[in-house]
Amino acid sequence: MDLIFTNHAINRLYNRGITQSDAWYTFKHPDGSLPGQTLGSQKFFKNFGDQRIEVVAKKNEKGEWIALSCWSKYIGNGKPIFPRKENLFWSLAKKIGKKLWNKIKKSRKYQNRLLSS
Questions:
Q1: Rounded Cα gap, residues 100 and 14, in angstroms
Q2: Strand order across the beta sheet in which 51-59 lies
Q3: What is the pLDDT of residue 78?
Q4: Strand 41-48 to strand 3-5: parallel, antiparallel, or no bridges (unpaired)?
Q5: Between helices 108-116 and 88-106, what is the axis angle to 10°?
Q6: In terms of C-beta density within 10 A (0-12 exposed, 13-18 middle, 19 or more buried), how is residue 27 classed?
Q7: Which pTM value belongs to this model?
Q8: For residue 35, what are the β-bridge partners?
Q9: pLDDT tens, residue by residue, 70-114
Q10: 3-state secondary structure 65-113
Q11: How far is residue 4's CA from residue 60's CA, in Å, rounded to a whole number?
């Protein structure tokens, strides 16, 4: 019962910060499975603390399991153990934006406006 990963599934794993071995382990040793939305597909899921990994797979015409997609979900309230990878551009933009906002808040003009309102 091996699992073949499509390029789409590998991209999803990378973008969502999930290792291929965790997805494979979820498929091999699921806590449960449900029918997938695509005809003939199965959704395998496994809980890792407060995080649940879900793998959608389908058998091809040769009877081999093909991973179509994969994601993780929160269970309850807690920090994810697989944090989502952020685009480098957006992470830099956020850092610059935070620094600028902090400088604006500390400026006298901004503080004077707040006081005069």
A1: 31
A2: 3-5, 65-74, 51-59, 41-48, 32-35
A3: 47
A4: unpaired
A5: 60
A6: buried
A7: 0.62
A8: 42
A9: 998 887 654 545 556 666 777 788 888 888 888 877 776 666 666
A10: EEEEEEEEEECCCCCCCCCCCCCHHHHHHHHHHHHHHHHHHHCHHHHHH
A11: 10
C-alpha 60, offset from chain centre: 26
Whole-Å CA distances, 52 to 6, 23, 55, 81, 100? 21, 11, 10, 10, 37
Residues in the chain: 117
- Structure-token match 């969502």, residue found: 16
Tokens of 32: 């449960």
Is the Cβ–Cβ distance between 19 and 13 less than 8 Å? yes
Residue in the block written with tokens 């407060």: 50
Residue the block writes with tokens 């029918």 = 35
Answer yes or no: is pLDDT of 1 > 80. no
Beta strands in 27-77 (DSSP E): 32-35, 41-48, 51-59, 65-74
